Amino acid sequence: MKMKNGTKLGHYEILSPIGAGGMGEVFLAEDTKLDRKVALKILPGEFAGDSDRMGRFVREAKSASALNHPNIITIHEINKYENAHFIAMEFIDGEMLRDRLLKNELPIEEALEIAVQTVSALAVAHEAGITHRDIKPENIMIRRDGLVKLLDFGIAKLCCQDEPELDPEGETVVLFNTKAGSILGTAAYMSPEQARGKDIDFRTDIWSFGCVLFEMLTRRQPFQGETMTDVLANIIYQEPVSIFTHRRDAPNELAGIITKTLSKDRAERYQTAKELVDDLKKLQTQMLVNAVLVQTQDIRISGENQPTSVLNSIAVLPFYNMGSGEHNDYFSEGLTEEIIMNLSKLKMLRVVARGSAMRYVIEGKSHKQAADELGVQYLLEGSVRRQGKDLRITAQLIDTVNDSYLWSETYRGTLEDIFEIQEKVATEIVSALEIRLSPDEKQNLKKRYTENTEAYQLYLQGRFFWNKRSEEGMKTAIKYFEMAIKKDEQYALAWAGIADSYSLLGEFGNIPRKELYPKAEAAVNRALEIDDQLAEAHTSLASLLMLKKWDWATAEKEFKIALELNPNYATTHHWFSNWFLGMGRLKEALRMIRRAAELDPVSQAIQKDVGLVLYYDRQYDGAIEMANKTLELDPNYSAAYRLLSLAYDGKQMFDKAIAANQSWGKLTGNQIETELALAYLHAVSGNRDEARQIVDAIEQEKAKFANYYRGLALVYAALGDDDMTFKLLEKSYKMREESLLNLKVDPKLERLHPDSRFIALLRKIGVEK
Questions:
Q1: How far apart are CA 493 and CA 594, in angstroms?
Q2: What pTM does this model have?
Q3: Interval 215-256: pLDDT, tens
Q4: Which of 1, 6, 718, 740 is an S-S bond match for 683, by CB 3.0 to 4.6 Å?
Q5: DSSP calls for 218-273
């Protein structure tokens, strides 16, 4: 029966041809019964005449039509009118992925969205026992509204023989032959097992999808060849080129996904489409959050005075203590921090760190002022009244854009109810902000780290003193954390608190870090032994691996685990930026430290380190600006003066560099370090005699301090004595001085970069291959 416009097949009227292929011709038709447009696929007469294949096709089509998924084309019916067998399907007003790829390169975000929808369809089909077997751009259609539809589901499998046949004339593989026709599948998307004629399972679809994803990003097929036989040989024996060869802006995680989908060993691929779609969605969310944060950070760093609110961003203001006596302050502040910790694990919610929110309460800023300066839309505030074991906690969620209360609640109970109250507060916030949670995130909101309320109170007191960021505070915090552990030895957060305290004690006290490393390491290992889902513990471990052991690879792994567990933990971003600095990856270091600054906008240490990364990137004016902003937060923050000295040195403004160095020395009391830095400034500015006099005096005193040899090496480098410079750098290496870890990016040693001794030293440190 020849089809033309106006031909009727029962209650379907042919309107126009859409396309044709090995499975027959496709027409746009009118369903006169239901008054809707449909697509009619007219099956070839030879195919329809084979009762065995037709029977199998009908059974599979019925299965496919029962899937009922928005990303799978809907099959309305399979029927016969006179001599024409046809399938009636939904009509999709859109374009084929193939046509879109012919136009231009897809943005990564768009490719990911198409990928997520496509693999979601595969996951549903695979769960129903259906393998597609012919995933390719020609079988993926995109509606005008962006909805993806996967076509020809299940048709290929039921219409195939056990082994494919080669079509020597073309670029395809014949899946089965009839007397006068064939159903074809494109060779470039075939899995190795499919190309070899081996048994097929769901992982074949995953391979084919990997080929499509590669092509979406590069507009190239991963396996090419002059002939179809060459293509099949490359599929079986060759590895595809790296995605970065054609797409430098691709995230590392996306490259990893493609590599896993295109593993020739099925056991090394994603074993289910669900696993694959979960990774795609995770990356999609991560990119969305990163884009929002980077945009906000760029606004703030550029100095533009304008609101920087972002969607689903919140600051938890310290809960006000309404109880009698200051001894309850630890409880109200601890409750604040616990709520922040719970919320910060949600990937679609940016949560500002406690220290930044505290500042705006102390300064008495209005809700709108605080929200604008913190770069958030929502504020949570509340109060705590504690009398003995009785509690009354109030909480209000404020939308500062609309100046309205989204939600308010009062909770009454006892100390034994505190964990349930915290869970309710977090759940109510999630509900009010309409945040969709993953199953893991739902579980995290309910997670309790101890059931012992005494241990919990001791832990809160430990965090209270830890947040004071002083030597005395850290030592007191350790005592409380240890008391908490005596109440509950399995209290992982308390162990993590000890690790955090020892990690920061070296920064705020005068105890050498090397003496503190073993204690911090023992505590963090115990915390992870109890609970390996603590971002704080993984962050501390990553820092120890980097600073103590110079184990860059494992440190990177631990930092990434921490970010996965808690994407809003500012300290992870902060310390991870140091890792990128050490590796010489300045752009990533800057992006990471800006994330930290976004999460904790008034942290002096983080703001200073934004400037430090700018300094290492030779952006000296930006470094000076950040140093001055840090001093606005705290005029006595000594490290900001050190940064000023470095940046002025970079600009060859030596008088200002020397003045800033003197201010640094007065605040720290580190006279010898200050003198050594002064010697360098004299040397680099041409005052060689003054530099040598200072160095001679220091060397005679033999008063060693942290990073002594590396500091001395800088002076000799500025004096042009390269042999002595490398001799001192070797001593620095043997002493494992921490400042040596930034050797690769230090502008003060840039002149020595071509020297083979410099490259050899980088390799020994582990930052150069």
A1: 27
A2: 0.57
A3: 999 998 999 888 888 888 888 888 888 787 788 778 878 888
A4: 718
A5: HSS-SS--SSHHHHHHHHHH-PPPPGGGT-TTS-HHHHHHHHHHT-SSGGGS-SSH
